[in-house]
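Form 12-C: Joint structure prediction
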Amino acid sequence: MNRRLMMGAAAAALTVAMTPAAMAQEGYVIGVSNTVQGNGWREEMICAMRAQALVEEDVASLIVAHRNTDSAGQLEDLNNLIEAGVDAIVLNPSNPDALNSALEAAMEAGIVVVAVDAGVTAEGAYILSNNQEEYAYLGAKWLFEQIGGSGDVVYMRGIAGVSADTDRDNGFKRALAEYPDVTVVHEVFTGWQQDQGKQQMFDFLATGIPFDGVWTSGIDNVIVDAFVESGAPLVPIVGADNAGFVEDLLTVEGLQGAAVTNPGSVGGAGIALAVDILNGNPPDSTTVLVDPVLWENATDAGRAMIEAAQNPNLDPEWPVSVTIPGWTDYSMEQIIACDGPA
Amino acid sequence: MSLVQRNAWTLGLLVLFVVLLGVTRAIQPGFGVSGLESLARAALPFAFATAAMAVVVIVGGIDLSVASMMAVCSVTAAVLMQSMGGVPAILITLAVGTAMGLVNGALIVLTRVPDIVVTLAMLFVWQGTALLILASPGGTATDWMRSAITGSVIVDGLPKALVLVALVVAVVWVPVKRSKLGLAIYATGSDETAAYRSGVAVGRTRTLAYGIAGLFSACGGLGLLALTGVGEPVPGPYLLAAVASVVLGGVILGGGIGGLLGPIIAVFILRIIRTILTLAAVDPNVTTIVEGTIMVGVVMFGAVLVLRSRGAGP
Amino acid sequence: MTPSDDPLLDAQGVAKSFGAVRALTDARLTLARGEVVALMGANGAGKSTFVKILTGALQPDRGHVRIRGQSAQVGSPAQARRSGLVPVYQEPSLIPDLCVADNLRLVDTPVDGFRHWLTELAHGDLRLDAMIRDLPLASLRIVDLARALAMRPDVLLLDELTAALPTDLVDRVLTVARQQAADGRGVIYISHRFAEISRLCDRATVLRDGATVGEVDIAPGIEDQVVEMMLGARIDLGKRAAAIARPRPEGRPRLRVENLAVAPKLVDASLALHPGEVLGVVALEGQGQDELFDALAGFRTPLSGRIEVDGVAAGFRHPADAIAAGLTLVPGNRAEALFRERSVRENIAMPFSARPGAWGPLRMRHEKARVAEAIERLQIDTRAQGEVQRLSGGNQQKVTIGRWLAHGVRTMLLFDPTRGIDVRTKRQIYPLVRELADQGAAVLFYTSELEEIPLACDRAIVIFNGRVVDMVEATEADEERLMRAAYGLTGSEGAA
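Section 2 - Result
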């Protein structure tokens, strides 16, 4: 019985060994690590990375570790990328402090580390990030202005304990401090889940408690849906530049809202930055912040910006800002195709 | 039955692991000491979560709150270490973990609500507790704790993290297994009525088994803290991974059969499969399918072998 | 044998109710040093409840159980063990996934003593590292007994221990039990077998309807007195339905069973069942009737023997085979037969739509009419029709039997269909059975309550110790006759 078991083990191992292996091409091998899967923003980030790697001539291949996990899981992925012998690692960090052991080991091994979307504290790592605190501040400030500087707002956050959420909370609180007559009447965590956020809004509308505006942390088009489906009078809503919400801003009658850009294509910029560094052209500072822009449908100028950015081919959960001028080089078709180098 | 026969499943898993190590070397010839070390570190929280789950599955239950308890323990220790030394913080955390496990067990025994329901409810309770202790990742870990799992010990290629898992599990589980309590745990899981008739205090046994699971969860939380250096209040993907390793490790869902060694080897197998898939640059959307397929395949293959050997026997 | 001053075990005035059901009202038992006492009682007399209380698995509502004069209540099996009472149950209480040695360790059994008793019980070559799961049933009972003996118990309680044992082992067990008494210890012996009781026991304590009705010294010819005590005033309750009993039919039987043996308990059963006949099966618990019905329903494969349906040999390998041959089992446990969350209508319709091989669409209108008719006939309270689980137990059982009236059935196997059902509903069930037979069905009817035999059956076979030992016509089947038959006191192979 035992011998059979061993033979079986060997057979199982062979199956594994059949999977595609080896990459011995010329050029850089870049590793990617990301810890949220199945979210539109993150998927766009991954596709931007692939598309940018495809158009960068010096990149031979991309190894993508892309799954739902925590910091310990990301540490595992980073260590595996180091073992795979990559030249650079572009990661969306789950936590600024937790990954330092692996990042330091990577840099010791001569690997270029670029964190996108959020920062890391490891010394020597490059950070290319959307400014999350500014993101929340900009949207909140617009919302509070819109409701006349006083009133009740619903505050729909992301995932408790995740650093992007914490940064945005700081920005939101900063704006709130500037408008003492605005109160938060309801605060929930959507978990950055579309269905959950929608249900939470349904539940709150059902209570009948009056409110004057909604700030969302990127779960936005379903909130508009919740208002429309339950027949409640619309209030000003702040969301991100997700394709679905941007379309709502143009088409839903009576909706006043603003989209704050939070481009997932920052991932593509991260690849471009990593290649620049590998080629001996590092930026002046290790931290590069991409500042958000606010598009409102209340003014003509804002409407024009929204119309220019809209693209019906995009998944409604994807941000419409699919490129970052000056950083990314791929075309709209390439990012939608989502193919990396072979 | 000979020793080899009785441990055939565990030995088979060990062989599978060695073969997979060989495959890793074949794909990435540079895979060596540092690779083993990172493998062991990655396996650390999974190993403890799996040990916790294995104990309750052996007693005939299940604990869905393992990952949440790990989160509570990780943030508890991270917060405590800001204001006190590492040793007292660790001791308090271990006590907290054990207490949470005992609460789970006592609720199941006293309310007679099915374990799957109680621990599902407690999953949310502990998750909320973790967020109350620390709303966002923070706290700190002592330096020696972080270095305790980094690098090798005695000889190169024997990762400290591996030695730590082996030591902790041995120190907790071996005495239990050798004692009346261990026997009672296996008896309760195997046939509760027969155990009761044999005079086993079934309720107390079950509660203590959940307590042990809580203790292992606390170790898992401390492992997480040692790995990342910060306490994270949001539970990681340890619940389903633990169930998977327990099943792959030869513990029968339903109780009474299996040990802790098999499941812990299974943890290493699942971790190294991920390493191989990363090294081979397999599409990330395919990796989970491959992981799941391998698991089902091994378990089914094992079941066939067991059936055959039973059928061939007298 | 004279009891010493301080009895080993003394239970007085023990009462226990489960909800409205009074299982025990006044049970008593005393056991002195050097004594072997038999505890006897018909099905439903409260024997198993009393045993559970004696061993600490249940707490009595009233009364007390003292072991060696200790007045403290026996709170749990573990406590009973410490006080010196060690039981060996009808069902093995060994842990299947542990080896023999671990099972010993679990209850702190001295290994030397255990080995000694194993040798005494003809199992000296048993390996201590053998897994319990792999041992045959007879060995399990021996391991269980040897483990109990090794504890040097003051009170040894043996509950139907010999039911699964071959004759030579039974002899060994009786010798060992006698030896216990000779060493100044005590044994409580529970068995249906008069032969063993008269060889082994000094006294018998008889339970009826939850109370101890008498204690008799065992002497030759005592069986009649014990049977009388077990029956009590119920003898005349057997209201004759025998008027409806049909004469023994001629012609080819629907179902013929010849020398059937089914592991573990059925040794040799033969019977013939004709269309239009209701054939009763009389048996005490665990005599092999479970195995007989399981084999006929295709749940178990016989070791040897022959089953013929309409003159054609049948080899059932799956319940579907038995169903295809027209054999329908109504299990004693209603939960096994009904879809509790579905409506009465669906449950009645189920056998019709679930005919093996019928995967096509349901013929709704046709079905509806038949179901409506069945509900009408069964007089089921229609307010609770939504879910079968909201019906009373009796009405549930009416559904399991009555639905076959709507569908027609060739051969019906009824296994204790009236267990736990109120008297009124029982009276409604007998005519249903009769009606099935009048429609041309052949009915095999096992009941644990002897007085039902003359009410529902034409005649009955008696199974004792795995063999069909007798055949009784309903017209002459009063309860005493049946009771004596069930205890193996009559018939060709009756003991004692």
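Section 3 - Comments
Residues 195 and 222 of chain A are 8 Å apart (CA to CA). The first strand of chain A starts at residue 28 and ends at 34.
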